[in-house]
Amino acid sequence: MAHLSTSDSSGKSPPEPFSLGGKVAFGMGDMGAGLTANLIAFSFLIFLTSAAGMRPGVAGLVLAVGKVWDAVNDPIVGYLSDRTETRWGRRYPWSGRSHPLRHNVFSHVDCSRH
User: Sign of dihedral through CA atoms 77, 68, 45, 113?
Assistant: First the structure.
């Protein structure tokens, strides 16, 4: 029968699990961003139906398409970036390569009033 050890090959013991207080404190760090994102999404739905004049079903579909895109795309990009090995690290090349695309998209948005 194999002997199971609580330490890995480097001799370090596994980290202690988070306490409930540690989990709550960790979650509080994302609370501001999460609340802001949810408020913007909720306000965008109201904007689409009130100011843009979309039917509620179409406005909901617009938001749902974005959520479905994220649900499919995010795990794929995460998988690829987790397996990227460069001298700059795993995430930097993905961020650097997407910068020209972001620059072109956001610099060509027409924000002028008509």
Answer: positive
- Side chain identity at residue 17, one-letter code: P
CA distances from 110 to 32, 49, 51, 107 (A): 29, 22, 18, 8
Whole-model pTM: value is 0.53
Q: Give the separation between CA 7 and CA 27, rounded to whole angstroms.
A: 29
pLDDT in tens, 30-81: 888 889 988 888 899 899 999 989 999 999 999 899 899 999 999 998 898 8
Contact 15/22 with Cβ under 8 angstroms?
no
Alpha-carbon distance values, 56 to 59, 68, 70, 96 (Å): 5, 18, 21, 38
CB 41 within 8 A of CB 59: no
